[in-house]
Each structure stands twice: as structure tokens, then as C-alpha cells.
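We were asked to recover a plausible sequence for a given structure. The inputs and outputs are reproduced exactly as logged, with field labels preserved.

PROBLEM: sequence recovery
POSITIONS: 190
GIVEN STRUCTURE:
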């Protein structure tokens, strides 16, 4: 589902000459190979190349779910990698408007407090970083970052990625809640 409004995504040649997707008109228009109209980068990638983009397996389910929720689209994700210096799982998201942020905040309200997070099995910390100074009030999407296991690090294994069980558990509960709220847009099946 993602955003209701369609955006234009351009297929361009990347630095290696391979086709890549660009959100908005690229600075060098000579590299444009075509364009697609879509509600989200995932839908644009699917329309342009016939397949979804490659996602880290540990966070793919959450990314796909977030793009089903009305008013939300993702544009980057990482399951977290200890060796790369960033053990946090994260998803960069855009909200179509403030109502979408309110809906999402309500959907994730099951992560209610440190006490609840500590008793959860497996434990998972969650932080939604919202910069309302970016595009606030000008009708453009609000960019945010959903950080999992960052504040503080995942209590199960400090300094390491949240792990597949924690991400799957979070995604499963979020899907259940989102399917109840938006049955026409979100599948209850994981």
C-alpha cells in the first residue's frame, strides 16, 4: 500500500553502468533509461526490474510489512552487522503525513516501557527517530528512522544485532496489529 500518491522513479545507469532506481530526476539526465510511477520504492523496483530489491534476510519481513501499512514507505534497511561497526537493525521510513505517524505510534504501542521490554522474550529495544524539522508542514513526506536494538543495545546480547528471533517476534506482533487496523491493506499472514 505505502503512500496513496504516486511518485516518479527513474531507472538510471549507476557508476558501474548497471541499471539502478533513482527517486526523483537524477542530476545527470543523460543516464536516464526510463521511468516508473509507483507509491513506494519497493513497488517502483518491482515495476522496473520485475523483482523486489535484495534485502537483508533478518529484516526483510519487517520491511515488506511496513510498506503494506497505509501512509508508510521504506527507502533503506539493515539487519545490523557487528563487523561493520553498526550492530543496530534499522529501517529508514517516510510517513506521508502526521496521521501516518500517529497510526504507526499506536501500532507499536505494545513496546510500552523498559519494564515490558525487559520481560519480553526475546527482549528488543525500539526507537523511532523523527526529525519534524525535515519537510514538516510543506506537504512533503516526513523522513524518520526506526532503530531496533539501539537505545540501549538489545539486552539479550549487548552490542550485537537484535537477532532474528527478536526481529521476527516484533514483526509478527506488528503484522497482527496492522492487519486488524488496516484489513484491506495488510495481510494477516506472515
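RECOVERED SEQUENCE:
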Amino acid at each position: 500500500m505505502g503512500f496513496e500518491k504516486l511518485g516518479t522513479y527513474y531507472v538510471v545507469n549507476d557508476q558501474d553502468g548497471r541499471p539502478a532506481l533513482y527517486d526523483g530526476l537524477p542530476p545527470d539526465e543523460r543516464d536516464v533509461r526510463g521511468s516508473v510511477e509507483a507509491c513506494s520504492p519497493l513497488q517502483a523496483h518491482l515495476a522496473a526490474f520485475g523483482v523486489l530489491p535484495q534485502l537483508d534476510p533478518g529484516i526483510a519481513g519487517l520491511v515488506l510489512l511496513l510498506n503494506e501499512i497505509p501512509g508508510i514507505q521504506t527507502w533503506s534497511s539493515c539487519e545490523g552487522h557487528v563487523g561493520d561497526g553498526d550492530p543496530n537493525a534499522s529501517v529508514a521510513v517516510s510517513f506521508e503525513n502526521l496521521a501516518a505517524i500517529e497510526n504507526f505510534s499506536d501500532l507499536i504501542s505494545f513496546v510500552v516501557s523498559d519494564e515490558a521490554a525487559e520481560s519480553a522474550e526475546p527482549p528488543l529495544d525500539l526507537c523511532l527517530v523523527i526529525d519534524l524539522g525535515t519537510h514538516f508542514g510543506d506537504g512533503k513526506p516526513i523522513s524518520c528512522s526506526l532503530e531496533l536494538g539501539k537505545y540501549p543495545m538489545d539486552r539479550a546480547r549487548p552490542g550485537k544485532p537484535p537477532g532474528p528471533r527478536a526481529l521476527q517476534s516484533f514483526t509478527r506482533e506488528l503484522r497482527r496489529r496492522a492487519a486488524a487496523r488496516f484489513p484491506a491493506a495488510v495481510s494477516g499472514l506472515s
